[in-house]
Amino acid sequence: MEPVRKVEGKALPLGYSDVDTDQIVPSDALKRIERTGFGRFLFAEWREDPDFVLNKPEHQGAVVLIAGENFGCGSSREHAVWAVQDYGFGAVIAPSFADIFKNNCTKNGVLTVELPKETVRRLLEAVREDPEATVTVDLESRTVKGPGVETTFEIDDFVRYRLLNGLDDVGLTLRHEEDIERFERSRPRYMPRVL
Questions:
Q1: Mean pLDDT of the chain, nearest integer
Q2: Annotated domain spans of the chain
């Protein structure tokens, strides 16, 4: 996992509340066995509508997704995060997230930022008015800056540490590689070994 320090660029003003993981990535896409290539399935059913915000040329290349309350609710499929990330989003801003989706984002290097509903509304309106506007999510300073918005956000210290250092669950374990190897060398030969 790559470290996340700052996500800066155009934003996609989705704004919908209660977007579930089936809407983020349809179940048809779950037949894939790789973790890559899910971006093309992001909001697939909604993208059939030519007026859907993600289809608009002015929003191409957005790196920050701005959503409504309870983003990522529904099933626990990690594929939803893979689709968001594979499409190019490094951060998602919303008033609230489903817990499992938020946790999956952390484990995959996508920064989730919870801001008050009114702040998210102002940011959505500003980006809808000026699609070229830059939104900056700075994890080091815990700030979000955009047109008419400059605010701080809270994030768990350990989650912040993981993201800043690019540590997924495997990366956290590998920080103890020497201890693991020492333990394996000290185990009796008749015990199962990890290769």
A1: 94
A2: 6-167
**H-run or E-run covering 174:** helix 169-174
pLDDT digits (tens, 9 = 90+) for 115-137: 999 999 999 999 999 999 999 99
Structure tokens at 114: 């919870």
Burial 52-67 (b: 16+ CB within 10 A, else e): ebbeeeebeebbbbbb
Tens of pLDDT, residue by residue over 5-37, are 999 999 999 999 999 999 999 988 887 778 889
Q: How far apart are CA 59 and CA 10, in angstroms?
A: 7
How many CB atoms within 10 Å of residue 86?
18
What is the CATH code for 6-167?
A: 3.20.19.10
Alpha helix positions (H), 52-168: 79-87, 99-108, 117-129, 157-165
pLDDT in tens, 98-109: 999 999 999 999
* pTM of the model as a whole: 0.91
d(CA 182, CA 184): 5
Q: How far apart are CA 118 and CA 195, in angstroms?
A: 53
Q: How far apart are the first and last CA of the chain?
A: 23
Beta carbons of 6 and 141 less than 8 angstroms apart? no
Reference 142, options 121, 157, 162, 125; nearest CA is 157
Q: Hey, how many other C-beta atoms are within 10 angstroms of the C-beta on 89?
A: 23
